[in-house]
Amino acid sequence: MIIIEKTKSFMKAQAEEFFYLATIIFSGILLIVFLSYQQSTRGKEVLQTIQERIYSEELVDVGSMLFNSKLPFFEKYYIQAMIDGILQGKDYSFVYYGKVLNTTNITQILEPLLDQSFKGKWRIEVILPKDTQVYGELKKEKVLYSWENLIPVPDENVGKIIISIGG
Amino acid sequence: MKSQIIPISFLLLSVGLIIIGFIFYNVFYGKKYEEEILEIKILDAARNVIENAKNYLKLSLVYSSLQAMREQASSGGSVGAGPWICNGPNPLPVEISKGCLENYTKYYLTIYGSKFNTTLPLNVYLKDFSSLIYQLEETGVLNGLYDEGNFTVNASDARISVTKEAFRVSEEFNVSELITKNRFWYMFRIFAEWANEDPFSPCICANLGCACSSSSGEEGCSSCSQAADNCAEYALKALQSKFDEYVKCERSNICCMQGIGPPCLPPSGCLGWSNRCSKSCEHTCVIPHSTSSHSSYSPFYTLPSFPNKKISFQASDQQTVCKEYDCKAYYWYEARFSAAYIFTCKDYKYYISSPKGPKPLTFSVSAYAYFRDQDGCKALVECECPSSATKCEECTPKCTECFGEIREVPCSTTITTISPTP
Question: What is the per-residue pLDDT for B314?
Answer without folding.
Answer: 33
